[in-house]
């Protein structure tokens, strides 16, 4: 099974389940198929994919050095906010000779797997008695995978073919073509998505779902699977896919930490791996890598759970939820969103900051302030209002997302006018040390004059970052002066209320339901406001999840095995439509649904990637005229270009 | 505003979850939140109170109680004129930790630092006296020996919270009155960098560019 | 506080195949005895919450490893970070008793523990419910062995009739917790490693 097939495979999974077939209708420009650096093997129904060590490493070489990120230096999370141009040309040379390594990993399957589909967690009760035979190593491997799968396999069968979540389609909604995997049941197996973090000794650190008594044995199994491949195959296992049950397990091993993502949502290995990278990065932001190594040095039994704060677990849960249930383009696009304001307004703010920096040069000596941000926070999303940074220096978007998740949490617990001084490690900047963040809440406003719906509250926050742990008072003085100055010049009014938020209808782009547009050199993106379901968290989550899946499919349609676009310039349309024969839905207590004639699903999306920008676009249901869609896409692009200086921070206050 | 103002730099120390942030929240906002999240790093808050004819401005450092942040503590208490060492009257371990903090403050902090030993969560005792695990006498003894102010408080009900800050304020103001503008006696710091008042004044006239 | 997570104690059970490791573990965790013989593949994992000395609570993560030698390559992974190692022999099987020392050595070689001299082991002689006629390992021999291994705790157990199982695991948990809590130097000053930031000095903010 090659990689191309895998992609098709994942999409066909969804189509099978939902009765909707995605069709790749057109791919212009040349798509090259690439040799893959990883090896996937179809064990009957089971694909085991491992990372093959680089050729210059001996097969028995340093296992820990085969770190996933090294093997995949181009995980698509590797851009920073000021990178001048995103060059995609330095892709790792995955020469074919790598594939010849590790030929021993060539299983001969003598018996096929059977997975018992019951609701018991059968890990301690293997159904068969194993006997010794020649394919013994193979047997162990199968057994491990078997157990991994078995113990997480059992979920209510009613979920598997559940397509009765279709709602009457209204004009500002799009249909859901994907399986509704909202959790039913209470055990950790019933979740379509889960994350596990454990130590290299198999001790639990975190799981998104699950009670200790279920999770602790399971952590042992994960640990054994990872160890088995490290020791017996000299590889880091990357992923296990079970086609029969549509389960994917993705692993990251970074001694002394092991992470595993589990998904029944057809996510690709790369998607899951980048998600694991974010979770690992969060851990590092809280306890840096040097500290982590020291804690486990001569103490491999260390219980990291007791070292972390309640806040850390809350934040990990929050990140998992963003990754699993929210649109979260900050992460998906590796870019940040910007608070819209007029060009001259933004320029005045940045000039003010810049002048103050010069004037305060004595009180805040060069080197004290490393980075500064004014952020707007609304509905758990951050937008950049202003950026203060040294020329030629920048912070990685992942680092900023970690900062945001820390601030999110503090927002929900803030009292009065407290200012915070937080040590935080920015793993993509320097994973071995801490920086210190001065955080001050500037203002709060309610854009909705009628009511006090919390979703309309906009907060503004100032963040000043230093490498000096005792720089608090210097940054505080600077921050106070900056805020006074912005207020006295009435500049604060530009960012306390979002005056220029736009809807999709503000752009003359017919048939387009939603889009995301990213300018690569700024590492920033824009998208229209999501204005439906804002009063209903469940509905909003479902809607965002839907968008997330459409966009995920779009992106996955044009990337290679490393999750990188197959070409520098790509224009691709994707189609989701219903198959003819459709399962008769069982209406279990659905009173309303049946009264409506459900609209036929006929969805189209467009992805357009160039060296300068990326455009992702979802059309309204029923649209299949590519010419019109392309015209709309071009209008969006020219609209974004026209308002570029409003929509994006181009320079910021550099010093 | 015609009152003379004294600034008091105050730091809260103590084991995690003894209620440091709750004490501050009660003092600053007269509020209480049952499920308060732990502090990460440290939070800085200010509160003005009038003591007699005098305005005292508390500049409060609410520090994280978790062990892994312990090494950051000296940064906060180094220039403090007052410290609250907080423990939980139902948690003996937290009192042991409080002893450690008192010792460390005597060794490392400003010699004239006013320390208040604060046993928090007495509201739990009102429901069930058997929950008490740190005897009042034991704490009073420590306070006597080490020359500390001593209070038993409840941030939840507000019991004794303002008394703590009042007690500290009363021990300091005269000095502050004399040196209000000179800024001398109060800030016995070797480290002028963190003297906020000085830097703030200096910046008014200083030209950014020295040439 | 309830938010505080309990200590996780990783406990490894070692011993020859068939000495009853899995049965012991099941007896302890589920309080049931499974007659059925099962050759373990790799390892089985069970968990149980334990109260130690009535004031400490921990969660025991028991790793029941396979007795067969062919699994020894995975030893490193299994033994890494263990808080206690339980050595089990069968009182009706001399060979299993003779092998205890090599199991211990095997563990120490692979586990890479920081101080092998003080690492907690517990010795269990299982199947004492068997007919006396079948018992071939004397109590004396077992006591001598326990003494020679550094006075490690010794229990005679029966997974079948539940004799001494709880007591033994209490001791196992206690030893494990002791090992687990040696974290004295965990909290060093981690904030003194300042990051050196090199800003380009040529772009001085003062232009004159």
TrEMBL record, chain A:
GO biological process terms on file: autophagy; protein targeting to vacuole; vesicle-mediated transport
Pfam families named among the record's database cross-references: Fuz_longin_1, Fuz_longin_2, Fuz_longin_3
Positions of the FUZ/MON1/HPS1 second Longin domain? 369-483
Q: Where is the FUZ/MON1/HPS1 third Longin domain?
A: 512-643
GO cellular component terms, semicolon-separated? fungal-type vacuole membrane; Mon1-Ccz1 complex; multivesicular body membrane
Superkingdom field: Eukaryota
Q: List the membrane topology term(s).
A: Peripheral membrane protein
Return the InterPro entries for the record. Answer: FUZ/MON1/HPS1_longin_1, FUZ/MON1/HPS1_longin_2, FUZ/MON1/HPS1_longin_3, Mon1
The question of whether Transport is a record keyword is answered with: yes
Q: Where in the cell is it found?
A: Endosome, Multivesicular body membrane; Prevacuolar compartment membrane; Vacuole membrane
Query: Residues in domain FUZ/MON1/HPS1 first Longin?
Result: 193-311
- Its main localization is membrane
| UniProt keyword Transport present | yes
Which controlled-vocabulary keywords does the entry list? Autophagy, Endosome, Membrane, Protein transport, Transport, Vacuole
Fetch the PANTHER family from UniProt.
SAND PROTEIN-RELATED, VACUOLAR FUSION PROTEIN MON1 HOMOLOG
Query: In UniProt terms, what function does this protein have?
Result: Required for multiple vacuole delivery pathways including the cytoplasm to vacuole transport (Cvt), autophagy, pexophagy and endocytosis.
The similarity comment for this entry is:
Belongs to the MON1/SAND family.
Query: What is the protein's given name?
Result: Vacuolar fusion protein MON1
TrEMBL record, chain B:
InterPro entries the record matches: P-loop_NTPase (IPR027417), Small_GTP-bd (IPR005225), Small_GTPase (IPR001806)
- Protein keywords: Hydrolase, Nucleotide-binding
Q: Does the keyword Hydrolase apply?
A: yes
Q: Which Gene3D superfamilies match?
A: P-loop containing nucleotide triphosphate hydrolases
Q: Which GO terms describe its molecular function?
A: GTP binding; GTPase activity
- NCBIfam families given in the database record: small_GTP
Q: What is this protein called?
A: Similar to Saccharomyces cerevisiae YOR089C VPS21 Rab family GTPase required for endocytic transport and for sorting of vacuolar hydrolases
Organism of origin: Maudiozyma saulgeensis
UniProtKB/TrEMBL annotation, chain C:
For this protein, the record's Pfam families field holds:
Ras
Organism encoding this protein: Maudiozyma saulgeensis
Segments passing through the bilayer: none
Biological-process GO terms, alphabetical: regulation of vacuole fusion, non-autophagic
What family classification does the UniProt entry report for this protein? Belongs to the small GTPase superfamily. Rab family.
Coiled coil located at which positions? none
Q: What is this protein called?
A: Similar to Saccharomyces cerevisiae YML001W YPT7 Rab family GTPase
Among InterPro entries, the record links this protein to: P-loop_NTPase, Small_GTP-bd, Small_GTPase
Residues spanning the signal sequence: none
What Gene Ontology cellular component terms go with this record? fungal-type vacuole membrane; late endosome
MF term (GO), any = GTP binding
Keywords associated with the record: GTP-binding, Lipoprotein, Methylation, Nucleotide-binding, Prenylation
């Amino acid at each position: 099974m090659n990689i191309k097939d895998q992609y098709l495979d994942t999409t066909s999974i969804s189509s099978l389940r939902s009765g909707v077939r995605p069709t790749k209708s057109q791919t212009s420009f040349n798509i090259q198929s690439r040799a893959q650096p990883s090896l996937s093997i179809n064990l009957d129904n089971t694909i085991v994919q491992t990372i093959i060590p680089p050729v210059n490493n001996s097969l028995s070489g340093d296992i820990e050095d085969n770190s996933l990120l090294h093997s995949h230096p181009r995980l698509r999370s590797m851009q920073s906010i000021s990178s001048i141009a995103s060059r995609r040309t330095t892709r790792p040379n995955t020469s074919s000779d790598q594939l010849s390594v590790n030929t021993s990993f060539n299983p001969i399957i003598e018996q096929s797997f059977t997975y018992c589909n019951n609701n018991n967690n059968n890990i301690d009760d293997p159904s068969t008695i194993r006997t010794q035979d020649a394919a013994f190593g193979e047997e162990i491997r199968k057994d491990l995978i078997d157990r991994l799968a078995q113990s997480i396999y059992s979920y209510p069968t009613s979920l598997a073919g559940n397509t009765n979540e279709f709602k009457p389609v209204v004009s500002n909604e799009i249909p859901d073509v994907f399986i509704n995997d909202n959790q039913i049941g209470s055990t950790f197996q019933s979740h379509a998505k889960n994350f596990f973090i454990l130590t290299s000794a198999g001790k639990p650190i975190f799981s998104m779902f699950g009670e200790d008594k279920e999770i602790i044995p399971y952590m042992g199994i994960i640990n054994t699977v990872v160890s088995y491949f490290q020791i017996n195959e000299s590889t880091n296992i990357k992923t296990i896919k079970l086609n029969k049950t549509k389960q994917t397990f993705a692993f990251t091993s970074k001694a002394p930490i092991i992470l595993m993502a589990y998904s029944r949502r057809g996510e690709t290995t790369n998607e899951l791996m980048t998600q694991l990278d974010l979770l690992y990065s969060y851990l590092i932001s809280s306890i840096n890598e040097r500290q982590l190594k020291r804690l486990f040095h001569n103490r491999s039994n260390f219980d990291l759970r007791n070292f972390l704060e309640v806040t850390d677990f809350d934040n990990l849960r929050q990140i998992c939820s963003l990754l699993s249930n929210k649109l979260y383009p900050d992460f998906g696009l590796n870019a940040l969103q910007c608070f819209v304001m007029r060009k001259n307004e933004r320029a005045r703010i940045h000039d003010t900051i810049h002048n103050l920096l010069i004037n305060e040069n004595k009180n805040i000596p060069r080197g004290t302030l490393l980075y500064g941000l004014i952020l707007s926070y609304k509905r758990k999303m951050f937008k950049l209002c202003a950026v203060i940074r040294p020329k030629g220096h920048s912070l990685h978007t992942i680092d900023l997302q970690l900062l945001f998740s820390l601030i999110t949490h503090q927002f929900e617990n803030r009292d009065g006018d407290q200012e915070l001084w937080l040590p935080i490690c920015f793993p993509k900047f320097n994973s071995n040390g801490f920086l210190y963040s001065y955080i001050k809440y500037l203002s709060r406003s309610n854009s909705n004059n009628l009511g006090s719906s919390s979703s309309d509250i906009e907060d503004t926050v100032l963040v000043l970052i230093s490498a000096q742990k005792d720089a608090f008072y210097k940054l505080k003085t600077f921050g106070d002066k900056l805020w006074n100055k912005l207020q006295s010049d009435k500049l604060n009014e530009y960012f306390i209320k979002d005056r220029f938020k736009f809807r999709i209808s503000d752009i003359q782009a017919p048939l387009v339901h939603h889009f995301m547009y990213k300018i690569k050199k700024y590492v920033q993106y824009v998208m229209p406001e999501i204005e439906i379901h804002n009063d209903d968290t469940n509905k909003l989550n479902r809607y965002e999840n839907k968008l997330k899946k459409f966009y995920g499919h779009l992106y996955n349609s044009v990337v290679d095995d490393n999750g990188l676009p197959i070409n520098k310039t790509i224009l691709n349309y994707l189609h989701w439509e219903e198959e003819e024969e459709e399962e008769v839905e069982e209406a279990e207590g659905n009173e309303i649904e049946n009264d409506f004639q459900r609209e036929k699903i006929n969805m189209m999306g467009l992805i357009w990637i160039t060296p300068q920008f990326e455009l992702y676009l979802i059309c309204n249901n029923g649209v299949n005229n590519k010419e019109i869609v392309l015209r709309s896409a071009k209008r969006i692009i020219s609209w974004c270009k026209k308002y570029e200086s409003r929509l994006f921070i181009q320079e910021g206050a550099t010093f | 505003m015609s009152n003379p103002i004294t600034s008091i730099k105050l730091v809260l120390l103590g084991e995690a979850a003894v209620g440091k942030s709750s004490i501050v929240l009660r003092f600053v906002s007269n509020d209480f939140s049952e499920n308060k999240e732990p502090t990460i790093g440290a939070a800085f808050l200010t509160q003005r109170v009038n003591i007699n004819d005098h305005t005292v401005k508390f500049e409060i450092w609410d520090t994280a109680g978790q062990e892994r942040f312990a090494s950051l503590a000296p940064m906060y208490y180094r220039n403090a004129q007052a410290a609250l060492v907080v423990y939980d009257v139902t948690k003996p371990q937290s009192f042991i930790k409080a002893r450690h903090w008192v010792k460390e403050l005597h060794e490392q902090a400003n010699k004239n630092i006013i320390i208040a030993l604060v046993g928090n969560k007495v509201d739990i005792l009102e429901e069930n006296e058997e929950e008490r695990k740190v005897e009042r006498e034991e704490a009073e003894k420590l306070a006597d020996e080490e020359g500390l102010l001593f209070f038993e408080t409840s941030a939840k009900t507000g019991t004794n919270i303002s008394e703590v800050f009042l007690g500290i304020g009363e021990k300091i103001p005269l000095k502050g009155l004399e040196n209000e503008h000179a800024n001398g006696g109060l800030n016995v710091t070797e480290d002028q960098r963190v003297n906020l008042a000085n830097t703030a004044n200096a910046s008014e006239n200083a030209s950014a560019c020295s040439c | 506080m309830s938010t505080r997570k309990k200590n996780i104690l990783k406990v490894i059970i070692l011993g020859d195949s068939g000495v009853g490791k899995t049965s012991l573990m099941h007896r302890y965790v589920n309080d049931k005895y499974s007659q059925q013989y099962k050759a373990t593949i790799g390892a089985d994992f069970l968990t149980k919450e334990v109260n130690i000395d009535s004031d400490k609570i921990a969660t025991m993560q028991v790793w029941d490893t396979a007795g067969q030698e062919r699994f020894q390559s995975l030893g490193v992974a299994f033994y890494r970070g263990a808080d206690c190692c339980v050595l089990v022999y069968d009182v009706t099987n001399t060979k299993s008793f003779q092998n205890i020392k090599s199991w211990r050595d095997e563990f120490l070689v692979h586990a890479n523990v920081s101080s092998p001299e003080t690492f907690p082991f517990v010795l269990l002689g299982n199947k004492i419910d068997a007919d006396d006629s079948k018992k071939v390992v004397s109590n004396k021999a077992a006591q001598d062995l326990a003494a020679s291994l550094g006075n490690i705790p010794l229990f005679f157990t029966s997974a079948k009739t539940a004799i001494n199982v709880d007591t033994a695991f209490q001791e196992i948990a206690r030893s494990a917790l002791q090992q687990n809590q040696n974290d004295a130097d965990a909290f060093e000053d981690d904030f003194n490693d300042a990051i050196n930031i090199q800003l380009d000095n040529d772009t001085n903010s003062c232009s004159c």
